[in-house]
Amino acid sequence: FHPPVLYLGYVGFTVPFAFALGALVTGRMGEGWLVSTRRWTLLAWGALTVGILLGAWWSYEVLGWGGYWAWDPVENASFLPWLTGTAFLHSVMVQERRGMLRVWNLSLLSATFSLTILGTFITRSGVLDSVHAFTESGIGPMLLAFFALVVATTVGLIAWRGDDLSMGAEIESPLSRTGAFLANNLLFGSFAFIVLLGTVFPLLIEAANGSRISVGNPYFERMTMPIGFALLFLMAVAPALPWGRAGIELISKRLVWPAATAAVAMVVAVLLGSRGWAPTLAVGLGGFAVASAFRQLLLAVGARGLRGLTGRSSGGMIVHIGVAVVAVAFACSSSFLRQAEFSFDGVGDRASISGHTLVFDGLESVALAEKNEVRVSVLVDGELQTPAISTFPFGGQTIGTPATRSSIWDDIQLSVLSAPEGSGSTIVRVTVQPLVWWLWFGGAVMALGTVLAAVPGRSRRPASDTAVSTGVPTRREFPA
Full-prediction pTM beyond 0.85? Predict the structure, then answer.
């Protein structure tokens, strides 16, 4: 289901982009268009979020290679607009409340829409090798031309309206929520640039000298890890900051319990066996962010009851909890992944990995109309798992069907590499990853938070709903 859901996210950003383009053309650079497109933006971002997670689940459960995210070009193609779209969702709050960051918001939204076009080009053109890519299509040159047109048009319009867009208040202090949102934009922008560079670099090299290269996981992981940690830290600190200047004493008072939670989380992680600094730090920062979000939710519920869980602010805090859970699960499952291949010669053969015991229980050949399937029976800690491998007579293609035993602690996945129908050894690849279940749980929390964020909450006034040149504030109220 993930391709149509991702497509919904791509298409959904067309509406806010059209409003932004209209604001640039007409000169109405106030905040009204942001309010009008808020739920469209949430819908598009939510669809992208769900689509990316469904794609990761499909890769994990169906492909059976032992992972869920490989920094594949098509994976990156959907992740890029998610990054800039996330920055936009945060940055617009500054413009609505303070009339600031107009250039940032128009640039982020234009970049998001442009990246959806670029992502479609990468997916449909076949210029980059990917297990997710569709059949090569002749539409590639047209998509690339449209991408160039969108970029040139938006850059030109933003430059043309530069004087009007630059009007607004100044950031009072870096230690303010406004300053935190600006830092958020810089971090997400850097994250997107790093991923974009790693994705298109092979194309640039091939165009320059004809060489075909690939950019592997180490580049993406090493370059994005520091930014990911910084974003987790900012996600914990920003909700505790006031919009104006903040003192260290106030910030410390608001963050003392979240910081204590982070320390406890890191100690627990070490006691449970965490030895690497990266996953331990991820657990600590994740606990910091979750505790900070819960603090904000408790304040909202205390003020408004259960109604306080709705609206953009509280919905966003719930999304923050989901993001933190996903980040911790991603860090731990990647850092502590264990993979091995075992050869089984007969019923009763045993193997062990990461504290799990495997017992070979035989295999069964099934002849179907379109394929020949060999189902392998393996007892994992006494629980029967039946991965399979299928051979298609036309073309001789072989496709495996993995089996996954999932729990809240770890997942153990079995993929058949070789299963002879006669005599011979059956070779099974076994992958053990901790906390993968929490990745899907965190994604569900993110989806829930997005829905709650779209529910009308408190009413408040935007900074301005008219063209900047009029200077006349509106008196209408909009749901938060």
Answer: yes
Per-state percent for the chain, helix, strand, coil, to nearest 5: 60, 15, 25
**DSSP type of residue 419:** -
412 and 355 Cβ atoms separated by less than 8 Å? no
Provide CB contacts within 8 A for 186, sequence distance 6+.
none
Are the beta carbons of 295 and 254 closer than 8 angstroms?
A: yes
Helices (H), 305-399: 312-335
Question: How far apart are the C-alpha atoms of 196 and 217, rounded to whole Å?
Answer: 14
Helix segments in 238-356, DSSP class H: 248-271, 277-304, 312-335
Q: Of all helices (H) and strands (E), which one includes residue 208?
A: helix 177-209
Residue 378 DSSP code: E
Phi, psi values for residue 269, rounded to 5°: -60, -45
Q: Please, are residues 453 and 319 in contact by the beta-carbon 8 Å criterion?
A: yes
Query: In the 8-state DSSP scheme, what is residue 169?
Result: P
> Nearest 10 degrees: CA dihedral of 219, 220, 225, 231?
140
Per the model's pLDDT, the better-predicted residue between 130 and 316 turns out to be 316
Give percent of the chain above pLDDT 70: 91
Residue 470's pLDDT is what?
36
Residues 6+ apart with CB under 8 A from 125: 136, 137, 139, 140, 143, 144
267: confidence class by pLDDT, cuts 50, 70, 90:
very high
What pLDDT is stored for residue 104 in this prediction?
92
The pLDDT of residue 33 is: 84
Per-residue pLDDT, 476: 40
